[in-house]
Amino acid sequence: MLSGAGRGQPPNRAKPLVPKDKVVPKDPAPKGVAPKDSAPKAGTKGTGQSAPIQPAQESSSANAAPIIAPNPGIRDFKPDEWSLAFGHIPVLPGETLEALNIKEKGFYVDLTMGGGGHSRLILSKLGPKGRLLALDKDPETLSWAAIWGQGDPRLIIKRASFDQIDSVLAELGLGPADGLLADLGLSSRQLFSPGRGFSWQNDESLDMRLDPDNEVTAFDIVNHWPEKQLTDLIQRLAEERSGARLTKAILAERAKNPVKTTRELAELVKKVLWRPGHHAHFNLATKVFMGLRVAVNQEMEALATLLRKAPGCLNPGGHLVVIAFHSLEDRQVKQCFASREGQKIWKNMFKKPVTPSENELSLNRRARSAKMRVGELLKQPENK
Ligand SMILES: C[S@@+](CC[C@H](N)C(=O)[O-])C[C@H]1O[C@@H](n2cnc3c(N)ncnc32)[C@H](O)[C@@H]1O
Fold it and tell me: What pTM does this model have?
């Protein structure tokens, strides 16, 4: 899950995507390709004038542990116009900046660019010689970035999954980074985008792919996965104890007709799992939808690969910052930092995850399940 458009309201699709006073290129980078006249580094998408950033509070820096006082928030943080237009508010903005401990001339990677909320905060701290590589597997976010980042020579945009970070760096001829940021899951914009099938609040086909080239959709899983796998998904990824019962109901339903739409699935979940006393039965659908999305996009596997590869992609002293919204993802990150602390590869910067302040939650309810963990790379492992 994720942060978002604020107060549980889906972004208003009727509103223009781009702030009115911005000049939008006529053909903004379809399919993740940046405009030809931009100045990319090493063959990927460059972009132009940097978006106006409301600088966050001054980051007090970072070498002493803990680097961040718990939950400082950014007092009076206001998402910039690009985040508002995109429909996604960056989570833990001040904490993320502090955790990355940005050096003016450093090289950073935003592994999950989304609407670029964190990317623009990072750029606001980089000097002219700094570099930011921003990745996303969803091409729509890339065409968006081609607008807000147009002409900024410090920014390199690339369509890629973050589990490929090592080969992306090699392909672009970029060395290890000074900091890596992964803000996991999906953006509020994706959640509510018509036709993508992420939300039970829309009635549309069961898709849920972040990368439209992904072969597997939620429809395939719901209608074709065997009982055991489906039960495991619902119990483990959706953390729904009645997974076996729900699976049986799905199997019975699909024996008659395929379960085609988000509405059909949400209704089925409600029918099977709702009991008096469940004051918000649709929360049950939320969990099931999240589990399905995680399975469709192989999010656990991608995170495991990232955690394995990250030490080889960071300079010693650099920080890997991970913001997770799913307890299993958070556990993976926690265990990785803890187990490799023993091998003196990571220093776990916080015993407990950093969570949003009340101040932030009053602005952005969607941040409520966010947990940020930070590892400092002590040394490159011998076997990367
Ligand atoms: C929570 S959003 C990031 C929001 C962003 N930090 C901001 O402030 O606008 C997560 C983004 O990560 C992308 N994503 C998810 N899994 C990914 C992966 N394996 N590789 C690259 N991008 C991924 C999603 O498409 C989505 O745009």
Answer: 0.83
Q: Is the CB of 323 under 6 A from ligand 1?
A: no
Residue 364 has pLDDT above 60, yes or no: yes
Instruction: Report whether residue 88 contacts ligand 1, using a CB cutoff of 6 Å.
Output: yes
- Best residue among 112, 123, 144, 213 to mutate for probing ligand 1's pocket (most ligand atoms within 8 Å of CB) is 112
**CA 135 from centre of chain:** 10
Q: 76: how many CB neighbours lie within 10 A of its CB?
A: 10
Amino acid of residue 126: L
Round the average pLDDT of the chain to a whole number and report it: 82
116 lines ligand 1 (CB under 6 A): yes
3-class DSSP assignment, residue 245:
helix
| Ligand 1 neighbourhood includes 302 CB (under 6 angstroms) | yes
pLDDT tens column, 132-170: 999 999 999 999 998 999 999 999 999 999 999 999 999
Candidates 3.30.9.10, 3.20.20.80, 3.30.565.10, 3.40.50.150; CATH matching 30-189+300-377: 3.40.50.150
